[in-house]
Design a protein that fits this description.
The protein is about 30% helix and about 20% strand. The N and C termini lie far apart (about 35 Å).
Length: about 270
């Protein structure tokens, strides 16, 4: 499928998610919105609820980590959240930067930007804003941000080289990024890799961990650090939709693994 078509699918599906109620309970890549069919499986059980700045209205359960925990955000920093959704990570970041900092959320989906803006209006923050735009072509100025964060979003971007090139461009010298994302170790079965639903489910859009880290390095980032990684288990009832029983057994017993990682890098 062409990158343009994949982007339209992502935009449509996440637009549907934006219209649903916030997630109750364990986060998942597709949330519990009912728009992702059988892909409503848990990605990872990171719990935001005890974090300062957490707003349950902004938690759609779309994350695979908590990048702000490792982002070394300081009071007064200028923060960019890529794929900001309903604003969950932005409001947590706002609690850290305080009144003297500012937070920008960038999202590809108009309905998500509207939902986040509505949530922010209720909170009354004047130093948080949300912008619609493509991560591959961010409508943002160069050298603008101290820290860029993102949570289970870059795996949805077809051209990850462009994504990290844009992160490099918008960061200030000495700034850094910290993202949580989904990566692969080994080789995904072809049916999983090609299916558009699995792409929206943050699985088939993921690339190999070594390739992912190599792209970051190729863009010139230094001090690249993987802070955390967790195995993501795909339930058998989901695998049965795409694979034969023999393929399922090979998948489970082979060297392939799907992981969520939280990684950072610095611009010098």
């Amino acid at each position: 499928m062409k990158a343009k078509d994949l982007k339209l699918i992502v935009q449509e599906k996440y637009g549907q998610i934006a219209q649903k109620s916030p997630v109750q309970g364990k986060p998942s890549c597709c949330g519990t919105s009912g728009c992702c069919g059988e892909l409503e499986f848990s990605m990872i059980g990171d719990d935001y609820s005890k974090l300062e700045g957490y707003n349950p209205d902004a938690d759609l359960g779309l994350g695979c980590g908590i990048p702000t925990n490792f982002a070394a955000i300081r009071t007064g920093d200028c923060i960019l959240d890529l794929g900001s959704g309903a604003g969950n990570d932005c409001f947590v970041a706002r609690a850290i930067v305080g009144e003297t900092g500012n937070v920008t959320g960038l999202d590809f989906t108009e309905a998500m930007v509207a939902k986040a803006t509505e949530n922010n209006k209720k909170l009354g923050f004047t130093n948080v804003k949300f912008v619609q735009g493509d991560i591959e072509e961010m409508p943002l100025q160069d050298n603008q941000f101290d820290v860029v964060v993102s949570n289970c979003v870059l795996n949805l971007v077809p051209d990850k080289m462009k994504a990290f090139a844009n992160i490099m461009r918008v960061l200030k010298t000495g700034g850094h990024f910290c993202v949580s994302d989904v990566v692969i170790k080994g080789e995904l079965p072809e049916n999983l890799r090609k299916d558009a639903e699995m792409y929206v489910g943050c699985v088939s859009g993921a690339i190999g961990m070594e390739q992912y880290l190599a792209i970051i390095e190729e863009q010139g980032f230094k001090n690249i650090t993987v802070h955390k990684q967790n195995v993501i288990e795909i339930p058998e009832e989901v695998l049965e939709k795409y694979l034969s029983q023999q393929e399922i057994e090979l998948f489970k017993t082979g060297t392939t693994g799907i992981f969520s990682i939280t990684v950072s890098g610095t611009k010098f």
